[in-house]
Design brief:
alpha/beta, ABC transporter transmembrane region fold, Rossmann fold, six-stranded mixed beta sheet, four-stranded antiparallel beta sheet, binds adenosine-5'-triphosphate, binds magnesium ion
Length: 412
């Protein structure tokens, strides 16, 4: 009984310390894995600037942290085992010693001494097993809890198509109402009271200097970041109440940075629509101006694209993103600098293809290029996180400083 109390007390005290250390251990492991994967995916930066040693030293520092966290965890674990072993040996030794004393003084038979030994062992072993099992279960439950919390925070709701966006043509397709946004960890807001309204079927160009907040507007619209204040409505419905998956079905988005999976070209297109046939894939590539890509690849659609799409040029990556867009059937199309890496002739052709394919849909084009600006019925000029001006191309051209500089070729 005394043994059980002491043993379980030791397990409870050390177990609590172990649990805290295990959290640190998991965090350090996660950090070292993230650093390794970031370094491998961005090895091209090291090659470009001969920064291999610099990159390696960052990984070494993170590995050191990981090793220390492991060391602290195993030291406490070992300490707990040693105390348990001492308790075990102590109690077994005392009871066996008492029995031996009885045999030596003729108070007990050898048989009863063996019996005491056997009983003691039979009793102590399950107590030890129980203690170890309780420690293991508590730690595993905690690890599982942390894992489930993380999973919940990244997993979009499974209620696919739970809410249907009403397609009322009386409601604006997109409406920003005094939206402000501060990125986590940032001190300055990226958006400061953005308000505008885009009617269904309208083609709008959003422009403004670099860092003005154009991409942030799109990130807020696609719910990658939630606004601090204000609200965003899609066909009259607050996007905060729309399921993320439904929202991605409704808003077709070509982002500034094109993400390419290390898999086949076919897979990289099917991510946009899993049931797309090869014929539809080829057609979408054709429309995006990549018709000659497939015959030039060693295994056609089965060609594996390199890590982060290293085998594609910047312009090809952008057209691949546009081909993904052509496979979808959105109500609102958003292209954020999606053609900036293309030459003006190709850009014009691809954007016109977009306007034809998505004729009647609401289209938002974010661009600095004068050639792409003319495609919008309306322009919104963003400056320093605010809507500086909006209106028809011709009106703005004369009254807006940024626009007149861009159109006269004096600003980037
Ligand atoms: N993830 C982020 N975390 C913190 N700050 C960010 C983040 N993304 C953007 N910002 C900041 O928000 C501001 C607006 O950035 P945004 O990407 O919206 O500009 P932009 O108008 O799209 O510029 P560009 O024309 O260069 O693409 C910038 O000051 C930028 O540094
Ligand atoms: Mg941007």
């Amino acid at each position: 009984m005394i043994y059980a109390v002491l043993f379980l007390t030791n397990n409870a005290i050390q177990g609590r310390r172990l649990m805290q250390l295990r959290d640190g251990l998991m965090e350090a492991g996660r950090k070292s894995y993230a650093t390794l994967s970031d370094s491998i995916s961005n090895i091209a930066v090291a090659r470009q600037y001969n920064g291999y040693d610099f990159l390696l030293s960052r990984y070494r520092a993170v590995l050191d942290e990981d090793r220390h966290a492991q060391g602290r965890y195993w030291a406490v674990s070992l300490q707990m085992q040693i105390i348990n072993a001492l308790l075990f040996v102590g109690f077994f030794g005392v009871s066996f010693g008492v029995a031996l004393y009885g045999v030596v003084h003729g108070e007990r038979s050898v048989g009863s001494m063996v019996l005491v030994g056997a009983y003691t062992l039979t009793l102590l072993a399950p107590i030890e097993g129980l203690g170890n099992m309780l420690t293991e279960i508590t730690q595993s439950l905690r690890t599982f809890g942390v894992f489930m919390d993380k999973l919940e925070s990244v997993r979009p709701s499974s209620r696919r198509h739970a809410e249907v966006v009403p397609m009322s043509s009386f409601q604006p397709a997109i409406e920003f109402d005094d939206v402000s946004l501060i990125y986590p960890g940032a001190t300055v807001p990226a958006l400061r009271g953005i308000s505008f309204s885009i009617a269904p079927g309208q083609q709008v160009v959003i422009t403004g200097p670099s860092g003005a907040g154009k991409t942030s507007i799109i990130k807020a619209l696609t719910r990658q970041y939630s606004p601090g204040t204000g609200s965003i409505r899609l066909f009259g419905q607050d996007i905060a109440t729309i399921d993320v998956r439904t929202l991605s079905d409704r808003v077709g988005y070509v982002s500034q940075e094109v993400l390419i999976l290390k898999d086949t070209l076919r897979f990289n297109l099917k991510i946009a629509r899993a049931e797309a046939s090869d014929e539809e894939i080829l057609h979408s590539l054709e429309k995006a101006g990549l018709g000659d890509l497939v015959p030039s690849l060693p295994a056609g659609l089965d060609t594996i694209l390199g890590n982060r799409g290293a085998t594609l040029s910047g312009g090809q990556r952008q057209r691949l993103a546009l081909a993904r867009l052509f496979l979808r059937k959105p109500d609102v199309v958003v292209i954020d600098e999606g053609t900036a890496a293309l030459d003006i002739v190709t850009e014009q052709r691809v954007l016109e293809e977009c306007l034809t394919t998505f004729d009647g849909k609401t289209i938002v084009i974010v661009t600095h290029r004068p050639s792409a600006m003319v495609l919008g019925d309306t322009l919104i000029v963003v400056q320093d996180g605010r809507v500086e001006d909006s209106g028809k191309h011709d009106e703005l051209r004369s009254r807006n400083g940024f626009l007149s500089r861009v159109l006269s070729g004096a600003a980037s």
